[in-house]
Structures are given as C-alpha cells and as structure tokens.
C-alpha cells in the first residue's frame, strides 16, 4: 500500500483527500518541494527544507510543524513506504478556508507528504541528450510572482510544458522579460563555451535550484571556471555543451535547441563528467533514513 502523510496522520492513497475549499486547490496558494531519495538518503534535505521555510515566510504562510518535526515526518514517510530510491513531494497549502482569497480565513495550513518510486530519464537520454526548444511564454517577473518561491502557482511552467508538447520535445526554455534565458519548465540551465561553464544568476528570475548549486560546487571542486551571468539564446545556440539540472533531471545534456545542433549533437565531455561527480554524492549529502 502507499501511505500519504496528511496533517500528521498516515492515510491510504485512496483516502488521501483534502477539501475543495483548500486554497492550494482554489488559488495555488501554497508551496512545495520535490526531493529525491537515493539509497535511503534524503538528498540535500536541509537545502530543500530551507527553501520551503523561506518560501513559507515570503508568502506569510505558517507551517504548523517545526523544522525538526517536518524532517521527522519526511523520514517517517520514507520509512512507512519502504522507499530506498524514490521521490518525495512535500506540499504545504494555505489550508481550508472559504471562497474568498483572504488567507486569514484559512486557520491552519495543510501538510501533505507523498512518497513514490521514481520515474526518471533513460540512460540513453543522458548520453544522447534532449532535444529542446525555447518558447514565447516568459518566466514570471520577480516583482509579480517571484520564481524563487517554489509555489503551487505552476501554470507559468505548465504553459511552457504545453508549448514543449506541441513542439514534440520533452523540455523548453523560458526567457525572462528582458529576453535573457531564465530556465526550463522544471530545471535550471548551464552552457559550456571554451571550457567556461555559465548559468544564469538567480536574479534573472529563476528558481534557485538545489541541483544547480550542487553542480556549481562540483565545478569549483574540480577546477572548472564557473560563472553566474546572464546569456541569450544566441549564446545557447553557439555553446559547446548545454545541460539542464533539477531534482528529477539530475544533470541532463541538451543535444539540440531550436533546431541548432549543440556541439557534437550529444552529451558533451564536461556534462558527462559533472553527472558522474554528481552521482557520487547523491547517497551521501543528506539525511540517512535507515542508518
Ligand atoms: C522551475 C524550476 N526550476 C528549476 C528546478 C530545479 O530545482 P532543483 O534542482 O532544486 O530541483 C525546478 C525543480 N523542478 C522539479 C523538482 C522536482 C521534480 C520535478 C519533476 O519534473 O518532477 C521538477 C523547477 O520546478
């Protein structure tokens, strides 16, 4: 059976229900995290929790569990579902209220933890790289709905995914309102040019990816020149390598962008090296559930 953590209780998947008056459902009023478990290790648990609590503070949502209680709930949910390698979706909504927008009508937030087996990209995808496009849908502007907040407002991302689907590809890039490359619908982007590794700075209007941060660390540890600076689609097209990073994607190469073949048209050497180094740390840096 699959057990869902719902407000302090574990309930069967079929019984895991929330009210239609939940403001996460009605208005996307809430925040979430996607976290991976590798060999019983909740990878980068602290970083995910920090981002979650920062997002909650930013939207003035009070999470009814302390940091330690939340971490215990995550551990319990992984154990209860006997997950060794899998994926945690942690969802905090404003809670059940009335039909008005006012968060003050939601006395307590709803806390949901879903733990599942993982469906990931094929090893072939990692070697061949993905074919992607850029789309007309721009990233939310930071002073309207800050992309640094991993909120339940994912329609911006869904619209990008729809355009990717229509283009027959698996992922698509968003620009920001100034025309600089922001990120993919569910991942951050890096380009490699003449040995230099570049990723957009977080002020560009993108989620501060935890995988992105891990890759920057790995680059520094391995003597790569890595910079956080804005770039355009032109820079992507003429790059030697392009790759995307995310909890689900890990480090996945891009072989073609808007019809332009990137490098040799497959995962580049630096991309493959970074993926190898990334996979060395995923069962270490985090919270060990079973040890
Ligand atoms: C908009 C956006 N940008 C970047 C990332 C990568 O951030 P992390 O390196 O911290 O994960 C995300 C996160 N995207 C994400 C996280 C978990 C699962 C899935 C999925 O596609 O199922 C997507 C995201 O949603």
From TrEMBL:
Record keywords, A-Z: Amino-acid biosynthesis, Aminotransferase, Branched-chain amino acid biosynthesis, Pyridoxal phosphate, Transferase
Cofactor: pyridoxal 5'-phosphate
GO cellular component: cytosol
Spans through the membrane: none
Pfam families: Aminotran_4 (PF01063)
GO BP: any one term: isoleucine biosynthetic process
Pathway: Amino-acid biosynthesis; L-isoleucine biosynthesis; L-isoleucine from 2-oxobutanoate: step 4/4; Amino-acid biosynthesis; L-leucine biosynthesis; L-leucine from 3-methyl-2-oxobutanoate: step 4/4; Amino-acid biosynthesis; L-valine biosynthesis; L-valine from pyruvate: step 4/4
GO molecular function: branched-chain-amino-acid transaminase activity
UniProt EC number: 2.6.1.42
PROSITE patterns documented for this protein: AA_TRANSFER_CLASS_4
Claim: Mitochondrion is one of the keywords in the record: no
Assigned protein family: Belongs to the class-IV pyridoxal-phosphate-dependent aminotransferase family.
Role description: Acts on leucine, isoleucine and valine.
Name this protein carries in UniProt: Branched-chain-amino-acid aminotransferase
Organism: Chengkuizengella marina
Gene: ilvE
